[in-house]
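Let us work through a complete example step by step.
Step 1: write down the sequence.
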Amino acid sequence: MENKDDRDNDVGSEEVATTNTTKDTKSIDELDSLKEDKSIVVAVLDSGLNAKEEIFDDRLIEGKNFADDSEKTDDVNGHGTVMSRIILDSVNDVNSNNNIKIMPLKVLNDKGKGTTLSAYKGIKYAIEKNVDVINLSMSGIGHSKLLESAINDAVNHNIPVVVSAGNDNTVITD
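Step 2: predict the structure and record it as tokens.
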């Protein structure tokens, strides 16, 4: 039987978007100064979010679940909650407005596993909702034309995409 992720990576080149190099994306500092009176929405594509933590009071935008058949974005795994907390803790020091909001998009299941397709759907949803920043703190194996297309689409909509490095806990040697 064909692996679902293999099908996801098998996208024809005509479907892959190209990055418009003439467009500039905004830095976090520019976003802060441009939106002093408005919220800055960060879509966190991860394992969900535990909304009961005090740091998230009045700091959440309704999210969506792309990982399973549930409507819930609850975080059993914990990784999405930690990433969201790090984002808010980091910006609280430089953002006196406290206008950063988190939109939890659950693309990883309760075991922290997901598919290329769930990540793709999460990115496309974030673009549709016109978020200000997309955060992807996950790792995967190989190259996905589908994810590349979605990320390029976000960049073409002037939405910075922040990604992690080294999430697989391996040491790279020469």
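Step 3: interpret the result. The helical segments are 4-9, 28-34, 79-92, 116-128, 145-156.
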